[in-house]
Design a protein that fits this description.
- The protein starts with 7 loop residues before the first strand and ends in a 19-residue tail after the last strand.
- The protein is of the alpha/beta class.
- The strands form 4 sheets. The chain has an 8-stranded parallel β-sheet, sandwiched between helices.
- The longest helix has 22 residues, at 90-111.
- It has helices at residues 17-28, 83-86, 90-111, 147-167, 191-200, 220-231, 251-262, 286-292, 300-316, 321-324; strands at 8-12, 32-37, 56-60, 73-76, 114-120, 171-176, 179-180, 205-208, 214-216, 218-219, 241-243, 248-250, 268-271, 335-337.
- Helix 1 (17-28) links the parallel strand 1 and strand 2 (32-37).
Amino acid sequence: MEHFIQKRVIVTGGAGFLGSHLCEQLLAAGHEVTAIDNFYTGTKRNILHLLGNPYFELIRHDTTFPIYLETDQIYNLACPASPVHYQNDPVQTTKVNVHGSINMLGLAKRIGARILQASTSEVYGNPAVHPQPEHYLGCVNPVGLRSCYDEGKRCAETLFFDYYRQHQISIKVARIFNTYGPRMHPNDGRVVSNFILQALRNEPITVYGDGTQTRSFCYVDDLIDGLIRLMESPQELTGPINLGNPGEVTMLELAEAVCELTGSRSPICLKPLPADDPERREPDIRLAQQHLGWSPRVPLREGLTRTIAYFEQLLTGRAPEAEARAPTTAQASNTVTLRPGTAPVEATLPKVEARH
C-alpha cells in the first residue's frame, strides 16, 4: 500500500481560470499550495473559498521578477491566455512567457523542484496537419498580432528543454487545447464565454468567418486531471503532451448548442475572420492516453450546462457556489503581497467580441 506524501506546490497564475481549479484539486488531495498571481486577469473571487484553508497561501507577485520560495513542484500557468488580454499588452505577454519562465526555471534549478509548463495548442499555429500530434512543428506567423502569445509559448518550451538538457532539472510540458468551464473570465473574448453571455442577454451571437472553422473543447475538470497526471508521471516523461478533447465542433454548431441550452432567442451574426485565426484545431491525444491513462470524460453539452449555470449566477448577481463558501475577512488572513501587479484587466477593457 502506497503512503501519501504531502507536497509543497506552487501554482503561478493561481487566481486565474485554470489556476484556481488546479489549486482546489491539489488542496483536496492534501497538498500545501502557494498561489502566485499579479491579478492581471486572475481574480480573488476565484480563490476566495480557499483562503480559509491553512494549507493555502496567496502571494501577489509578477513572475517577470524573481521570487525565492521553497517547494517540491511548480505549475507554471502565469500568462494571459485569451487574444483580447494578451494583445492588450503584447510586450508584457512576451515577457511573462520568457522572463517568467526563466525565473521559475531558475527557482526549480536552485531548489531541485519539478516544474510543469502550461503550453498551448497555439504553438501549432494554423496547422497543415490534422489532428495535431506532438511531433508536428507547426505553422506560426512570427510577426502577427497573436505572435506575442504563440511565439512566447514556443520560446518558453525551448527554455524548458534547454534547462532540462543543460541543468538536468525535472520538467513537464503540457500543450493545452481550448478549455472551458466555471470561472472563465466573463470579459476575455473567448468563444464559449462570449457565446454564453450573448445568449443569456438575447444579444446577437458573433461568429467569425462562415462558422465552419472548428475547435475542440475540453471541460476544465478533465484538463486539471490531465495536468496533475502529467506532473506525477515518471521522470523520463517530459512531454510535450497534448491535453484536450478530440471532439471537434464547428463554431456554428457551438452557437446553436448554446442557444438551445440557454433557451435564447439570439440570432447568429457572421463577421470577417480575424488575422491568423486557425481554421481547424483538434488534438491528437494518443500520447496522453498511452502514458497518462488520460482521456476527457465530460461531454460538451454537460460541460456547457455547468458553465451556463455559472454565468447565470454572475449576471443575476448571485454568488457562484465557490464564492458563497468564502471565509470571512478575519479568516482570510493567508494573503501576502510581495510586489503589486498590473491593474486587473476587467477594470480597463471594454466589452469585447469573441475570438475563436
